[in-house]
Write a structure and sequence with these properties.
This protein starts with a helix and ends in a 7-residue tail after the last helix. The chain has six helices and no strands. α1 runs antiparallel to α2 and α4 packs parallel to α6. The relative contact order is 0.12.
Length: about 170
């Protein structure tokens, strides 16, 4: 049976198409509210999982996937609206695939690579920045600043994962 933490993660996944439907139909404030609820659910499910010992394989897989889907959905919306360059999304996708590949290699060696602080900072700053763009998206300065923060934290955390876990490649 699914735990409370897993149910919160599932709700976050369900909120993504709701968020997209709202922003694509011009209901940006409502979209911002749904997006914010989805972002807050990330912290809620993590807290519940750790505090009530509800850490599961499902949660380990779905929680970060739900975060990536939410963030990438918002970024794609901004690219389509001309508020974010497509190359920024490509960098985020590259980092996510590279880190996922690194984790798969580690699993083959019976190792688990836990999320580092830089990854948590990347996720939090990305979620906050995209939320600000939802509210004030027409500001070119804000869009450039958010894009820069996303790219810098994405590259920083990706490089850190590989440096901290370079021994995975010893074979």
């Amino acid at each position: 049976m699914h735990t409370t933490a897993s149910k919160i993660t599932i709700v976050r996944m369900v909120l993504v198409p709701v968020f997209l439907a709202l922003v694509y139909t011009g209901h940006n404030v409502a979209g911002f509210v749904v997006y914010t609820l989805a972002c807050l659910s990330d912290y809620a499910d993590g807290y519940v999982a750790r505090h009530y010992n509800q850490i599961t394989d499902f949660g380990k897989f779905m929680d970060p996937l739900a975060d990536k889907i939410l963030v990438l959905a918002a970024m794609c919306f901004f690219v389509e609206r001309g508020l974010m360059p497509g190359w920024a999304v490509a960098i985020v996708l590259f980092r996510e695939f590279a880190v996922s590949g690194l984790r798969l290699l580690a699993v083959e060696q019976q190792r688990v690579i836990a999320a580092g602080w830089s990854g948590k900072i990347k996720t939090a700053s990305t979620m906050v920045g995209l939320g600000l763009m939802l509210l004030f998206g027409s500001s070119q300065t804000l869009c450039l600043l958010v894009t820069a923060v996303i790219v810098v934290t994405t590259v920083w955390s990706g490089v850190e994962y590989f440096i901290r876990n370079k021994d995975v490649f010893r074979d």
